[in-house]
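Good morning,

Attaching, inline, the backbone tokens for the sequence recovery test we're adding to the shared suite. The designed sequence is right after.
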């Protein structure tokens, strides 16, 4: 008789205390499990077959009429859970010698479980759903080849039943299209017997952030109507034999018939053009930013693979391309997976703190060659990847919501180092880079708290914002900058000259320094137009009351050209490379000795 126990989980009833032989609640039914388990007990000669799914549901079967029937008691269930966590096949020839199968204080001679074997269970999309177990009272030497094959076949059939339980309702209620589970079921059916290929098309309706803005502004009714309108356009594009699916809140997918080749570029251009046409949805007209991805999937890729993820990766990348469509590219996929890996590793590095360090690059005043500031630059040395460029990990930190943690780490470690230099008698300011995400009402209090912890005056600090962050500010960010200036913190506009400067906003900025971008400064020795532009920027900066800093001074000729422009400070490899904290004091004293300046 089949007994099904649904362990507590969302949408299920706790049937842990159902009496032996009791009927399971209907919502716990697993299609075909009893037949699969009956075949397994017959083929393997075992008195207990159990299935533990990833959602916590547990099903077991014991043949009727057996005396001394094995029970899936708490000890055996706990062992099954531990083994299921690893998700691999395992055979325990003599479970009496395995502590996992023994209740505390039980004599191995009186153990009820003698033999144990399991096989992972996969769904139609190749993802692991759980593990199928077989248990016997007596130890065995091993499973014969035929018995191992029978166990694998039983696990495959159990996976089909587990998947079928989810696929019984194939329809997405909003669009009335088949949903993601139906997509995988149909794809598996098309690639039955493990042979052949299929073409998949994924359609990203709009960037997730923009779609969420639709929901916030207009509500879910409007968003649902927008998705249906988009689906109608895709449906009109399809030809007989193609099937359209709703696979995610903002994503559609098309499964092409088995004999169908890839859509031609002209056909894909037509689909993108149709999707880019303005949509009149509930009386409001708007234009979307769709992306269409294309993937050819082989039958063997269904087991343990995820073709839908890969084709959606292509559709996401396509949103940023002029054509609006692209074919899946493994290198693009690997790059995104690497970025995700780096994000998780960066989070761990911020928590641990041992892989991150600060390097410091001097800024020198031209009037006396005195070092007036050190710019703190975050460096990350990953234990296996080696040095990771700030140009890589800083944008990732911004995208992943880690930038505040990184900024606070820089504040804490940078100010601790500045305090140590002050105790050594070194008189220097510290410049810290800040992201646009940090620029809010909490920034001044976060910086002030770090300054109090380390006993550093705020007037020894400067914050650097990029031109775009500083110029395109609102009243809230302006108030935050004003609060910082009033507290004595310097404000530098970084990378100036490569954005689209609003001169009126620049005039009203509570900034103290203007740092001209190095891409303009590097060309001073040989590009006449760059020299004219930089000279005008220097004059503008001085007229507005800013100290002007030249970044990217990397050669003697560029330094000579800069001196003729009457700028205030210079920074770059010709002056000094970014250096670890341990080298800074020696460099400062050496610089003072060479130029007769005080540090």
């Amino acid at each position: 008789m089949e007994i099904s126990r649904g362990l507590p989980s969302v949408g299920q009833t706790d049937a842990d205390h159902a009496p032996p032989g009791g009927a399971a609640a209907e919502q716990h039914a697993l299609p075909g499990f009893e037949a699969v388990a009956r075949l397994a007990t017959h083929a393997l000669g075992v008195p207990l077959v159990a299935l533990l799914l990833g959602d916590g549901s547990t099903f077991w079967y014991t043949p009727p009429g057996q005396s001394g029937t094995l029970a899936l008691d708490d000890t055996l269930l706990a062992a099954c859970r531990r083994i299921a966590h690893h998700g691999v096949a395992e055979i325990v020839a003599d479970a009496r010698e395995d502590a996992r199968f023994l209740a505390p204080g039980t004599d191995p001679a009186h153990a009820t479980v003698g033999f144990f074997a399991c096989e992972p269970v996969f769904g139609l999309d190749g993802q692991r759903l759980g593990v199928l177990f077989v248990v016997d009272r007596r130890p065995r030497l091993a499973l014969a080849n035929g018995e191992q094959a029978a166990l694998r076949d039983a696990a495959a059939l159990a996976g089909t039943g587990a998947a079928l339980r989810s696929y019984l309702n194939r329809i997405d209620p909003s669009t009335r299209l088949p949903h993601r589970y139906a997509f995988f079921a149909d794809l598996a059916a098309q690639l039955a017997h493990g042979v052949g290929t299929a073409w998949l098309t994924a359609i990203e309706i709009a960037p997730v952030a923009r779609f969420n803005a639709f929901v916030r502004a207009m509500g879910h009714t409007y968003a649902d109507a927008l998705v249906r309108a988009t689906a109608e356009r895709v449906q009109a594009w399809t030809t007989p034999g193609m099937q359209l699916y709703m696979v995610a809140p903002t994503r559609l997918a098309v499964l092409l018939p088995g004999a169908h080749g890839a859509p031609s570029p002209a056909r894909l251009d037509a689909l993108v053009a149709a999707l880019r046409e303005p949509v009149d949805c509930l009386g409001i007209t708007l234009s979307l930013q769709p992306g269409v991805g294309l993937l050819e999937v082989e039958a063997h890729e269904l087991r343990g693979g995820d073709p839908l993820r890969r084709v959606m990766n292509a559709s996401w990348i396509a949103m940023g391309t002029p054509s609006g469509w692209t074919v899946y590219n493994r290198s693009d996929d690997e790059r995104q997976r690497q970025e995700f890996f780096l994000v998780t590793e960066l989070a761990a590095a911020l928590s641990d703190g041992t892989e991150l360090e600060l390097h410091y690059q001097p800024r020198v005043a031209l009037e006396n060659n005195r070092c007036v500031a050190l710019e703190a630059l975050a460096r990350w040395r990953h234990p296996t990847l080696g040095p990771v460029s700030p140009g890589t990990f800083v944008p990732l930190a911004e995208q992943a919501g880690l930038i505040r943690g990184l900024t606070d780490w820089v504040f804490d470690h940078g100010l601790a180092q500045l305090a140590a230099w002050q105790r050594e008698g070194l008189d220097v300011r510290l410049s810290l880079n800040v992201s646009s995400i940090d620029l809010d009402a909490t920034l001044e209090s976060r910086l002030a708290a770090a300054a109090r912890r380390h006993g550093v005056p705020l007037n020894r600090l400067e914050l650097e914002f990029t031109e775009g962050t500083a110029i395109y500010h609102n009243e809230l960010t302006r108030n935050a900058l004003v609060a910082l200036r009033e507290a004595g913190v310097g404000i530098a506009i970084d990378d100036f000259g490569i954005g689209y400067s609003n001169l009126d906003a620049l005039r009203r900025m509570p900034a103290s320094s203007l740092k001209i971008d190095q891409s303009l400064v590097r060309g001073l020795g040989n590009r006449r137009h760059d020299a004219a532009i930089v000279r005008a920027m220097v004059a503008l900066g001085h007229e507005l009351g800013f100290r002007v800093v030249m970044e990217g001074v990397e050669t003697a000729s560029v330094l000579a050209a800069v001196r003729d422009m009457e700028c205030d400070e210079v920074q770059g490899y010709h002056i000094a490379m970014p250096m670890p904290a341990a080298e800074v004091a020696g460099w400062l004293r050496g610089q003072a000795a060479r130029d007769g300046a005080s540090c």
